[in-house]
Design a protein that fits this description.
Elements: H1 4-20, H2 23-27, H3 69-72, E1 80-84, H4 90-99, E2 104-109, H5 112-125, E3 130-134, E4 147-153, H6 162-172, E5 173-187, H7 198-202, E6 209-210, H8 211-220, E7 224-233, H9 238-241, H10 247-254, E8 259-268
Parallel strand pairs: 1-2, 1-4, 2-3, 4-5, 5-6
Antiparallel strand pairs: 5-8, 7-8
Helix pairs in contact: 1-5
C-alpha cells in the first residue's frame, strides 16, 4: 500500500461503504461521540459531539470526524466557506448556519456515495446556498482566491501528498482568508506493522504524520499566525489494538511515549503574498 493511487482507492472504497450503510448500523458500531463502549470500529473512536451546535443535522453526522473545526473557524455572516472531505454534509451544514442566507458553503469530497448522500440531505433541508462538488482535495475543482474560510475534519491524514493539499488550500483561499482544520497527528512512532494495515490507514491512524512536521508544512506553504486551537489525546481501546497487535506488543505500545492526538489548527493566508515564488524563473507556481 505504498502507491498514492492505491491508497486513494482504498480510502474511497472504505468511505463509500460507510456512506451506503444504514445510519442505525453505523451508530451501532458504538464508537460514536456519545458512546463509551467502543467495539472493533476504528473509524469513529475519535469523534466529538456535534449535537449541541446550531445547524446540526443528525442525518449528516456519520461520526467520522476527530474535532469540531467549525466551532473554532471564526466564520462570519456572508462568508464563502469550503469544507474539505465533506462527507454527508455535517460540517457544511454547521457552517451554513454561520454564514447565513448571504453566504455560501461548498463541500468537496472524492467519494461519489458521500456526495450523493450530502446532496440528498441538503435538498431535504431546502438549502440553496450549500453545494457539494466531486473532486480531490489535492487538486480542488475550485478557482483561486475563492473562499474566506476553509474547514476540514479528519481528512488531510487520509491524503498521501499532504504538501499538495496544503498548497491547494493556500491557492483557493482569498488573501487574508484563513482555515481551521481538525486532523490526527503523532508524537513518537507507531508500531511498524501499522503502516501496512489498510484498515488503520483508512481509519485515520497510520496515515498521520508527526505533529511538528504537520505544523511546519503549513508554515512552509506561506501561512501565518499558525495556532493549535485544540489538542486532545486519542486513546485506542484494547479490543481494537488486539486486531493488529499481540498482547506483548500492546503492552509495549502502551508503556511507550507515542502519542496519537487530534489537533485543530488555525492559520491565515497573508493579505499580500510575500513569498516571491511567482517571479520569473522561480519554478514554484
Amino acid at each position: 500500500m505504498n502507491n498514492e493511487s492505491q491508497i486513494k482507492e482504498l480510502v474511497k472504497e472504505k468511505y463509500a461503504a460507510i456512506a451506503q450503510q444504514d445510519k442505525g448500523l453505523n451508530a451501532a458500531s458504538c464508537c460514536g461521540a456519545t458512546s463509551a463502549c467502543c467495539g472493533d470500529d476504528v473509524y469513529n473512536i475519535m469523534a466529538d459531539d456535534y449535537s449541541k451546535l446550531e445547524g446540526y443535522n443528525p442525518d449528516a453526522d456519520l461520526g467520522l470526524g476527530c474535532g469540531l473545526p467549525t466551532e473554532f473557524a471564526k466564520i462570519s455572516a456572508g462568508d464563502t466557506v469550503i469544507d474539505l472531505g465533506s462527507g454527508a454534509g455535517n460540517d457544511a451544514f454547521i457552517a451554513r448556519k454561520l454564514v447565513g442566507e448571504g453566504g455560501k458553503v461548498l463541500g468537496i469530497d472524492f467519494t461519489e456515495a458521500m456526495i450523493s448522500k450530502a446532496r440528498v440531505n441538503a435538498e431535504k433541508l431546502g438549502f440553496n446556498n450549500v453545494e457539494f462538488r466531486l473532486g480531490d482535495i489535492d487538486d480542488m475543482p475550485v478557482t483561486s482566491n475563492y473562499a474566506n474560510v476553509i474547514v476540514s475534519n479528519c481528512v488531510l491524514n487520509l491524503v498521501p501528498n499532504k504538501y499538495k493539499v496544503i498548497s491547494e488550500i493556500y491557492r483557493v483561499l482569498k488573501p487574508g482568508g484563513h482555515f481551521s482544520i481538525s486532523d490526527i497527528v503523532l508524537e513518537g512512532n507507531l508500531p511498524a506493522k501499522w503502516k501496512e494495515v489498510a484498515e488503520l490507514y483508512a481509519g485515520c491512524v497510520s496515515g498521520a504524520v508527526q505533529k511538528q512536521v504537520y505544523l511546519e508544512m503549513i508554515q512552509e506553504a506561506g501561512f501565518k499566525n499558525v495556532l493549535v486551537q485544540k489538542d486532545k489525546t486519542i486513546h485506542i481501546p484494547d479490543d481494537i489494538l488486539a486486531n493488529y497487535l499481540s498482547a506483548g506488543e500492546i503492552a509495549e505500545y502502551k508503556k511507550g511515549t507515542t502519542r496519537i492526538s487530534s489537533i485543530t489548527v488555525y492559520a491565515e493566508k497573508p493579505a499580500k503574498d510575500e513569498r516571491k515564488c511567482c517571479e520569473p524563473g522561480s519554478g514554484c507556481c
